[in-house]
Amino acid sequence: MKQKEQQLETLFRRHYRQLHRLATLLLHDDAEAKDIVHDVFAKLIDSPDKTLREETAAAFLLTSVRNRCLNVIRGRKIQERIERLYLLDLDTTVIPADLYGEELKALTEAIGLLAPPVCKEIVELHFRDGLTFREIALRMGVSQTTIYKHLRQALCQLREHMKKVSEQ
């Protein structure tokens, strides 16, 4: 075990600058780049059966850092897309209850009719209880993207219901 740790320390000292430079170029964030490089080496330390040969170590490390960076970038893009779509669905106008009593009653009815029932639950957790997508996802054991899709579906149903009510 001691020999493996010495080998990894040598590899770390030899390749750190190059790995850090690659991660910084891909992520444009020095702190996150350092974290990625350290995570790659930590993973190597934690895996008892993983030993690197000197001739392939540099390529392996560069590929590992690149893949970790791409995963981070992919996660950022998904998060940004969800946030952007979520902002499109938000309506920031507050409707005074005394002026729009019928509309509020119709909206409350519509929330009760949402299908599938998980849509109703997500709407209530998000708008009534003020939980974030992440908190709802953790509570329900699904991804944030799934929460967003159900919320979007619920909002579309509510809009359709409110259009029908306003046309009557």
Overview features:
168 residues, 0% strand, elongated
Whole-number average pLDDT?
82
Helix content: over 70%
* Percent of residues in β-strands: under 5%
**Separation of the first and last Cα atoms:** 77 Å
SS element count, helices: 7
Alpha-beta content class: mainly alpha
Approximate shape: elongated
The low-confidence parts are none
Biggest sheet architecture: none
Please give the number of β-strands: 0
Q: What letter string, H or E per element, gives the SSE order?
A: HHHHHHH
Rounded radius of gyration (Å): 25 Å
Write the layout of secondary structure elements.
Layout lengths: L1 H26 L2 H17 L7 H36 L11 H12 L4 H12 L4 H8 L3 H24 L1
Helix pairs in contact: 1-2, 1-3, 2-3, 3-7, 4-7, 5-7, 6-7
Describe the structure.
The chain has 168 residues and is mainly α. Helix content is 80%, strand content 0%. It contains seven helices and no strands. It is elongated, with a radius of gyration of 25 Å.
In short:
This protein has seven helices and no strands. With 168 residues, the chain is mostly helical.
